[in-house]
């Protein structure tokens, strides 16, 4: 994940930092809180330059695609007994969701969600975990990359995709989703759609004159 987003898929964590105004060797204590429960306690000591690094925690649990948020509560006591505290939150995220994909609604020219279109330059859309990067593949070839919005929705337009207008036939879309923590999830199976630009043949109808006798 990004360096400052405090989201990580690493579930064994240590903390580094610095403290001013305390002597070398002063202990640093950090409680790792899961709600009101202490999930781990990390310790370190202040070096001559004021920096410290704690030991590494045991395995921290991560539930679901959103992960689990922990609060790190740090405390240091100086020589006069004054306690300095600081805190920050970290989300441990070890899973993500599969990104769906299909024809965008404006590109499905037939019945709703029937996967049949006469549009040879279709747009594609779907849903993934919010903020996830989605690689979209057509018949196994990467055709573009986009990012899901805050609601999880994403669109890859034909103009953005690395493809030429499609000929009539059936195609398969698939995805690989990478969330902000770095978890990767390929789609389990592809989504098929058909391009059909041929108008149906109209059968000829011949009317014959008939007589009706009463």
Radius of gyration over C-alpha positions, nearest whole angstrom: 29 Å
Weakly predicted, low-confidence segments: none
Task: Tell me the structural class.
Answer: mainly beta
- In whole angstroms, how far apart are the ends? 89 Å
Write up this protein:
With 214 residues, the protein is an all-beta fold. It is built from no helices and 16 strands. The protein has strands at 7-8, 16-18, 27-34, 37-45, 51-53, 68-77, 83-92, 102-103, 116-117, 124-127, 133-138, 141-147, 153-156, 169-178, 184-186, 191-195. The strands form four sheets. Strands 9, 11, 12, 14, 15 and 16 form a six-stranded mixed β-sheet that branches. A five-stranded mixed β-sheet has the order 1-7-6-3-4, with no helix packed on it. β3 and β4 (37-45) form a beta hairpin. The mean pLDDT is 93.
Kindly list the characteristics that best describe this protein:
214 residues; 5-stranded mixed β-sheet; mainly beta; 16 strands; 6-stranded mixed β-sheet
What is the structure about, briefly put?
0% of the residues lie in helices and 41% in strands. It has strands at 7-8, 16-18, 27-34, 37-45, 51-53, 68-77, 83-92, 102-103, 116-117, 124-127, 133-138, 141-147, 153-156, 169-178, 184-186, 191-195. Strands 9, 11, 12, 14, 15 and 16 form a six-stranded mixed beta sheet that branches. A five-stranded mixed beta sheet has the order 1-7-6-3-4, with no helix packed on it. The chain has a three-stranded antiparallel beta sheet with strand order 8-10-13, with no helix packed on it.
């Amino acid at each position: 994940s990004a360096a400052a987003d405090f989201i990580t898929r690493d579930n064994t964590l240590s903390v580094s930092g610095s403290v001013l105004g305390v002597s070398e060797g002063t202990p640093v204590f950090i409680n790792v809180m899961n709600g009101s429960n202490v999930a781990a306690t990390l310790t370190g000591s202040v070096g001559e330059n004021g920096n410290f690094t704690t030991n590494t925690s045991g395995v921290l649990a991560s539930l679901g695609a959103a992960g689990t948020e922990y609060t790190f509560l740090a405390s240091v006591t100086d020589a006069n007994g004054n306690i300095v505290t600081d805190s920050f939150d970290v989300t441990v995220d070890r899973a993500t969701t599969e990104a769906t994909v299909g024809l965008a609604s404006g590109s499905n020219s037939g019945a709703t969600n029937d996967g049949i279109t006469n549009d040879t330059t279709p747009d594609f859309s779907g849903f993934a975990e919010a903020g996830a990067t989605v690689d979209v593949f057509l018949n196994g070839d990467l055709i573009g990359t986009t990012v899901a919005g805050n609601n999880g929705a994403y669109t890859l337009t034909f103009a953005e995709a690395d493809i030429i207008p499609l000929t009539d036939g059936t195609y398969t879309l698939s995805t690989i989703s990478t969330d902000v923590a770095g978890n990767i999830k390929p789609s389990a199976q592809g989504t098929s759609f058909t391009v059909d630009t041929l108008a149906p043949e109209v059968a000829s109808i011949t009317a014959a004159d008939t007589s009706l006798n009463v």
